[in-house]
Amino acid sequence: MQNSVTYTKNIELAYSCDIAVAGGGIAGVCAAIAAAKHGASVILVERFGIPGGNATSGGVAAFCGENAGQGAVFDEISAMLETLHAIGPYTPYPKDNRKFNHELLPFVLNSLLEKYQVRLLYHTRVADCIVEDGQITHLIISGPSGMQAIGAGYVIDCTGDACVARAAGFRVMKGRESDGMQLPMSEMFFVRHQTSAQCVPEGLLARIKDQDELPMTSIWPNGPGGNAIKVKIPKFDATDTESLTAAEIFARKRALQVTEYFKTVEGREWMFDRCSPIIGIREGARILGDCVLAVDDLRKGRQFGDAVAVGYYCLDGHSPDDDKRTYILPKDELAVPPYHIPLRCLIARDGKNLMMAGRCLSADQLALSSARVMTTCAMTGQAAGMACAFASAEKTEVRKICVSALQNALTENGAVLAIGRFN
Ligand SMILES: Cc1cc2nc3c(=O)[nH]c(=O)nc-3n(C[C@H](O)[C@H](O)[C@H](O)COP(=O)(O)OP(=O)(O)OC[C@H]3O[C@@H](n4cnc5c(N)ncnc54)[C@H](O)[C@@H]3O)c2cc1C
Fold this sequence. Notes:
seven-stranded mixed β-sheet, 9 helices, four-stranded antiparallel β-sheet, 2 domains, 22% strand, 26% helix, globular, alpha/beta, FAD/NAD(P)-binding domain, binds flavin-adenine dinucleotide
């Protein structure tokens, strides 16, 4: 039976820019703004109608890791949240976990993207790209206007799932080495405090009867009268359409089961309010870069001459095999000292003009379990954006820019690259 088709179509070359950023999560927004601030014309392509990714659509509402010194873009985001009284007070790492209002974050990110004249294409997915001799010349996008092309000098993949790299045929890494199993997803859902009964009819869902049956569940305060609840959803593949679909369906069932457990077994006065529109994805696919950041680099607090970001957070590698509060490593091995992230981890090895930031970082699974926190995603985003802007101004490959000039510019733009500054 035929199992492939060849598809060709002439489409409109609708846009051109110096730098195209794919994915408008915290990494993509920081990359796009940083590049635009440094003189590049920038287009940001985001498949949803709001920016923020996990931080908004995914309902994750706390900046973990060191919140100071992550770069001017992240500082401006935090400052604007402060003016809206939409973020908690700053405390240095490890007393981090700075909570913010994830419903207001899209407004903040939109305002800053507008301020720095980033051209935004929402409801638009990067579907493919054209590659010539390692150079991505065009992104093929699919949005409300149909299939179109963007001509771009440089591309930054901030999709979390390496969508651009995979479309280009560049090498990516996924999950743990032995079987490709990714860090588990989690569903963020929300309950309201209410005394009236709202039970799921008997027989519709299996009941969770006691704590032993409860999956890993974290309850966060989410404003007066509300709670955000996070439930672990393991063993699905975020880069596989059918598996991710199954995860979304299973996660909503789990959210209801867990709410019912709290109501009926623990007697909490909660009613189910809403789920995040998308499941939270900790790990999709990581792009193979010029260097792969390894967990041992983190453990040793290794310093790199081409450092463009610093990570602080622990090895937050939830075990991918079960739905309990288990970790890949023993608990006493989770802490790491602050560590450098080299520029080479942001440059796709197989390409000439593809960079990445955020969850697409070139890192092993455990290294990413730390570097995936939003503060570090913001820092790698700013670094990738500025690196591409430098390369664009000099009309050269990203791996040929002057690293010390980039580091100086990053430092002038609020990124503290010296290790240990906050400890
Ligand atoms: C349940 C959960 C809890 C977490 N808790 C915390 C926490 O408390 N604190 C913390 O700091 N971090 C936490 N993290 C980690 C953190 O939220 C993420 O790692 C981080 O937000 C990732 O940012 P990103 O920009 O790399 O990716 P994402 O936020 O995933 O953004 C990727 C963006 O790309 C878009 N996109 C994807 N494919 C395409 C395409 N083909 N075309 C166009 N757009 C596309 C997506 O819509 C999305 O907006 C948590 C993560 C999860 C899942």
